[in-house]
Amino acid sequence: MKLILDTNILISALLKDATVRRILVNPHIEFFLPEFSLEEINKHLDIIVERSNLTEKEVHLTLSLLLTNINVVPSEQIIRKYAEAEQIMERIDRDDVPFLALALTLQNDGIWTEDKHFQKQSKIKVWKTADLVSTLNAETQ
Fold first, then answer.
1. Which of 6, 53, 106, 108 fits a disulfide with 2 by CB distance 3.0 to 4.6 angstroms?
2. Cα angle at 124 between 126 and 36, to 5 degrees?
3. Nearest-CA neighbor of 13 among 59, 55, 80?
4. What is the mean pLDDT of each successive set of 10 residues along the chain, which is 141 residues long?
5. d(CA 50, CA 73)
6. What is the 8-class DSSP label of residue 5?
């Protein structure tokens, strides 16, 4: 399975050692993240540190560990699909354009997000955490 990660999923994994973090280290799933997401995480680092009860160093270490199973895709690789993604997301949420552009660039099984805005488009499959857990549980039985 190949999934595009929304930044909110990665932030969730940084905030709490729970289901999301365990899924992100699953070696049977390939994850992809637009590089700008790392800038978003750095922009919100103070809030992440505060809410996670981790030190900044611990947050960076956790992020580094999670990134070992996440392919960070440079902006140059998604730019050719940016206009198409922009057209789809223009009336929904322009902040989500890079994720959709990445999903349109790579062969994948969808976007993993808890952001309701993605539900308003029909081009790319959207996975909620609960859906992903159900699918993974069904595969292991």
1. 108
2. 85
3. 59
4. 95 93 92 94 94 94 95 92 81 79 94 84 88 86 62
5. 28
6. E
Residue 15, amino acid: L
Could you give the strand order of the β-sheet that contains 30-34, starting from the edge strand earlier in sequence? 70-73, 30-34, 2-5, 111-112, 126-127
CB atoms near residue 26 (< 10 Å): 13
Give, for 126, the enclosing helix (H) or strand (E). strand 126-127
pLDDT score, position 141:
62
Q: Which two tokens stand for residue 104?
A: 């349109």
In CATH, the number for domain 2-136 is 3.40.50.1010
Distance CA 95, CA 86 (A): 9
Count of H-run helices and E-run strands, the chain: 9, 5
Read off φ and ψ for residue 88, nearest 5 degrees: -70, -40
Neighbours of 65 (CB within 10 A): 13
| Contact by Cβ (8 Å): 63, 13 | no
By the 8 A CB rule, do 59 and 48 touch?
Answer: yes
In terms of Cα–Cα distance, which of 74, 102, 75 is closest to 88? 102
Residue spans of the domains in the chain: they are 2-136
